[in-house]
Amino acid sequence: MNILFSFFAVLLIIVTVIIGVDTAQLKFLFGVVIPYAAVATFLLGIIYHVVNWARSPVPFRIPTVTGQQKSLNWIKSSKLDSPDSTLGVIGRMVLEILLFRSLFRNTKAQLKDGPTLVYGSSKYLWLGALVFHWSFLIIVLRHFRYFAEPIPSFVIFLQNYDGLFQIGLPILYITDGLILAALTFLFLRRLTDSKLKYISLASDYFPLFLIISIAVTGILMRYFTKVDIVSVKELAIGLFSFNPVIPEGIGILFYIHLFLVCALLIYFPFSKLLHMPGVFLSPTRNLANNSRMKRHINPWNKPVRIHTYEEYEDEFRDKMKAAGLPLDKE
Ligand code: HEM
User: Is residue 111 left, alpha or beta, with left meaning phi > 0 and alpha meaning psi from -120 to 50?
Assistant: First the structure.
């Protein structure tokens, strides 16, 4: 049910743009107004969430650790898995963000005969996720050739390495194959594992289908139907420089591709995809585990009125003396 709902939602997006552009000729709406609205929603949505997270109180250190905390000098501590300094935290964050290090520890639980619950290492999710995210990033960075003139040198560099094998014409990009393979794996993984299928929601399938459709329409444009790149670049640079134009000769596939991207941008701030900015603000990741070295006092604790022993003795001195109790001050 969740799969069908997500599938038809993406189909509806595609049908909407076909009707809007091909039948109703609303090219300015789909080529200019919606892309601007999508980018604004994306940016404002992210800013809203990041500001909200940044303002949330985090009075105590709550890092999740997987190594020995720093304590006595003769006990070896784990600098990366239980970092006690800012440098250690930076190291852990870099490895987390670039290599998904915590996902590398992913385990799977299986019920064997007995019945016995067996835990084993499972690296496939880590590999699939890593391949998908890196391919996505490289593809998006390569797209800057449409938005900038002259083409930035980092784009040329990426294009050269991505097309290293020099297969076909236009040259096949390695990331195009990798992103499709990784997305297919991430989708099939939800279908083939019954436990995972049970907990998967429409909000898990929808972004998968959306990104698969973006990749497929892009690949169709590059290798099969072809698109007038000069006109696309005119439109893209127009958007970037706030002088929007709608050039003639751009096929419907491009508008589908663009509208799917807009749908992704609009959906982003309302979805689990927010883990992208979220990882930077996660207190379980970005705080040093120095609770034994430093006392962290809740900054908004109300001052507590305490009654010291001296005050107590002052108050009850006569009674204590009469009862023969020892006194600090006679
Ligand atoms: C989330 C953002 C996007 C993703 C993931 C994406 C993905 C892709 C992929 C996988 C391809 C296949 C060829 C390649 O890898 O370069 C492609 C091609 C293409 N994309 Fe995108 N795209 C995105 C955004 C955009 C935007 C905003 C535009 C608007 C200018 C655009 C325009 C194109 C064009 C014109 C092609 C055909 C390239 C060619 O013929 O060489 N894409 N896209």
Answer: beta
- Which tokens is 147 given? 């938005």
Residue 54 Cα to ligand 1 middle (Å): 33
How confident is the model over 4-43, as pLDDT tens digits?
999 999 999 999 999 999 998 899 999 999 999 999 999 9
- pTM above the 0.85 mark? yes
- At 223-245, the pLDDT tens digits run 999 899 999 999 999 999 999 99
Ligand 1 contact, 176 CB (< 6 A): yes
Q: Which of 288, 228, 272, 230 is CA-nearest to residue 254?
A: 228
- Please answer whether residues 99 and 130 qualify as being in contact, where contact means their C-beta atoms are separated by less than 8 angstroms: yes
The rounded distance, in Å, linking the Cα atoms of 249 and 236 is: 14
Q: List CB contacts of 275: < 8 A, sequence separation 6 or more.
A: none
Residue 214 neighbours by CB under 8 Å, 6+ apart? 257, 260, 261, 264
Which ligand 1 atom is at minimum distance from the Cα of 265? 1
Q: What is the DSSP letter of 287?
A: S
Question: Of 99, 93, 98, 149, which is closest to residue 123 (Cα–Cα)?
Answer: 99
Euclidean distance between CA atoms 35 and 13, whole angstroms: 14
Cα–Cα dist 279/94, whole Å: 11
Q: Are 106 and 128 in contact (CB under 8 A)?
A: no
